[in-house]
Write a structure and sequence with these properties.
single chain
């Protein structure tokens, strides 16, 4: 298998990666045949997967603009993936020229790309770390340089928590990250769920099994389980809703039925 020049030497290009599959769904070019194969297999069960990813990105952009309107100009994007057009730092800087962004991912391809994209950018950086180890994120020099934890921060956990199994305590990890942030900070989150998928559950389970097979289990949680991540936060209107219904720019009824899969919400710490 030919190793592209942009692929870090340390990675095994025979194993699919969820961030490269996500890149493929979004029409990106930083993925390998093994990723495309796994993504296509998942799409055999859920052909609307790319629509779900697009809805995630569109929600993220609206939430970033909302944060800036609320006076927040610091962003911590955990599980940021491979940078594609309209990323957090671009949206945030358009809305406020002084916005600062720290991306966090544990996929070496995502980190290598983020470094390349952010070269020469003094307002954004990337940390190679894992959501399951919040201290590695919070103690990083990139956070120290760019984020003032005494002022409100928007913490983005977009399409990442459904890759953290209950045994790895996602609620504890989120609580630890939230605990480090100043009052008035925002938690911006999306999460996969069987609720809202325009297919019988048995059929969607086929796509979930593909992720299990590549050792990146996709954990589908109920709306109530997802709401627990916001415990102690005040939900911003309209609350925890399907992605197209969160402060939409266009009529939600014009959206693809798949984009209503799963939930999105923004909470504010008191």
């Amino acid at each position: 298998m030919e190793r592209p020049a942009w692929a870090p030497r340390s990675i095994d290009i025979s194993v699919p990666s969820v961030s490269r599959m996500y890149d493929f769904y979004l029409g990106g070019s930083h993925n390998f045949e093994v990723d495309r194969e796994a993504a296509r297999k998942a799409m055999e069960f859920m052909p609307g997967l790319p629509k779900i990813m697009q809805a995630n990105r569109a929600f993220m952009r609206r939430a970033v603009r909302f944060a800036v309107e609320e006076g927040i100009t610091q962003f911590l994007d955990v599980g940021s993936g491979i940078p594609t057009f309209g990323n957090v730092h671009e949206v945030a800087r358009q809305a406020h020229s002084g916005a600062r962004v720290v991306y966090v991912d544990h996929d070496p391809v995502a980190v290598a790309h983020s470094k390349a994209v952010l070269e020469g950018n003094d307002h954004a950086d990337v940390v190679a770390a894992d959501l399951r180890k919040p201290q590695d994120i919070l103690a990083s020099p990139q956070i120290e340089r760019l984020i003032d934890l005494n002022r409100p921060v928007a913490l983005l956990l977009v399409a990442i928590l459904h890759f953290v199994e209950d045994t790895d305590d996602p609620y504890g990890a989120v609580a630890e990250l939230r605990g480090a942030l100043a009052p008035g900070s925002l938690l911006v989150l999306t999460h996969a769920s069987y609720e809202g998928i325009p297919l019988p559950q048995e059929r969607s389970e086929g796509a979930v099994d593909v992720y299990k097979d590549i050792r990146n289990p996709l954990i589908m949680r109920s709306r109530d389980e997802i709401a627990r991540f916001f415990e102690g936060y005040d939900m911003v209107e309209p609350g925890l809703v399907p992605m197209p219904k969160w402060r939409p720019d266009t009529a939600p009824e014009d959206e693809d039925p798949y984009s209503f899969s799963g939930f999105a919400g923004v909470g504010r710490s008191a």
